[in-house]
Write a structure and sequence with these properties.
The chain has 217 residues and is an alpha/beta fold. It has ten helices and seven strands.
Length: 217
């Protein structure tokens, strides 16, 4: 085994860093906390089960309905953004096409607005229609405090507090993960779409094994 690390592996390791760092913050955790599974620790620290509303007007719980037992892709945006949002959303549209009918079946895309006061379900529905978002890709809004909690818990935070307070300069990253297998990564939203797809599918090892078995049979 060589010491080299592929670009995709590096992205996954970097994406896991905020989660791993948070999990290892306490050097000597209490016995009770030590008995909690890694999956439950990540859920409790990073996936608050807040209520959100889709562009279809449906109320959903972030963990129970959107994250649990799923392979997901998450980014933050807002409908009137004139900066990185349109470019990232267009790029994710290309990702969706490459993933094909797996989107909405066993891979789910979630874009959460940074301006929930303005981006009502109706506004998001219009945005989804204008940009041709297909099934399996939800735009989400909610209470401002809940959206801010999600942004921070998911690691979409700039280390400079002044920059972080300005939503027009928000981080254009994408986080992706396999929740039941506790595999998470992230990458710039403007990365090559094929590479983003490969990175997402790299976390889906059981599906890869099934595909390989099917190819050999």
């Amino acid at each position: 085994m060589t010491g080299s690390v592929s670009r995709r592996q590096l992205a996954v390791m970097l994406g896991l860093a905020p989660l791993a760092g948070a999990l290892g913050a306490a050097a000597t955790p209490p016995r009770k906390w030590a008995e909690i599974s890694p999956r439950d620790r990540i859920r409790d620290r990073h996936f608050p089960n807040v209520e959100l509303v889709t562009q279809l007007g449906e109320k959903v719980r972030f963990y129970d309905d959107l994250i649990k037992d799923k392979l997901v892709v998450i980014n933050f945006m807002y409908a009137t953004c004139e900066g990185v949002c349109p470019k990232v959303m267009h790029n994710l549209g290309r990702v969706q096409k490459l993933l094909g009918d797996r989107v909405g079946r066993d891979i789910f895309l979630y874009s959460i607005t940074l301006k929930p006061q303005l981006d009502t379900p109706e506004v998001l529905a219009t945005y989804a229609e204008m940009h041709g978002l297909g099934p399996g890709w939800l735009l989400l809004t909610g209470a401002p405090g809940d959206v801010e909690l999600l942004r921070r818990r998911l690691g979409f935070v700039d280390p400079d507090p002044e920059v972080d307070r300005d939503t027009s300069n928000h981080i254009g990253n994408v986080r992706y993960g396999n929740e039941p297998l506790t595999r998470w990564g992230s990458c710039p939203g403007m990365s090559d779409p094929q590479w983003i797809v490969e990175s997402i599918l790299w976390l889906d090892w059981p599906q890869q094994e099934r595909d390989e078995k099917g190819a050999r049979s």
